[in-house]
Structure formats: structure tokens, C-alpha cells
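1st attempt posting a full record on here, be nice pls
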Amino acid sequence: MKTNVVIQCDGVDTNVEELERAVKEELKAQGVKVSKLKSLDVYFQPTVHETYYRAVDGDDKEVSGKLNA
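the predicted structure (as C-alpha cells):
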């Protein structure tokens, strides 16, 4: 079974899987090896349509930022 999680707010649908993919692409563009991440936290604020992220790699180096929409 495949689960599709969508956040609906103010008439806008936001697919959680697409957000995760976009954040990972942003990290890759910064030279971060996504396969080496220990954790990835994604924060989506639907009322202002902004996405922030925090990633920690195997060496406990933290990378955080805002997804450019």
C-alpha cells in the first residue's frame, strides 16, 4: 500500500512527498550527501507557504535553511 499525505490549507494542496524531495534536491545542490544524513527535519508552514529544513550528517554537522519556492 502506498500512502499519499497532502496538507490542505487555504485552498492549496501541498504533497508531503514532494516537499521532502525538494528539500533533498536543495541539500544536494549544496553538496550535502543525502545518503549520509543521520536526520532530516522538514517544517512546513501552510499559512505562509514556507518550508524550512534542518539536516544532520554522520559527523553531526548541521545544515539548515529555507526552501526557495
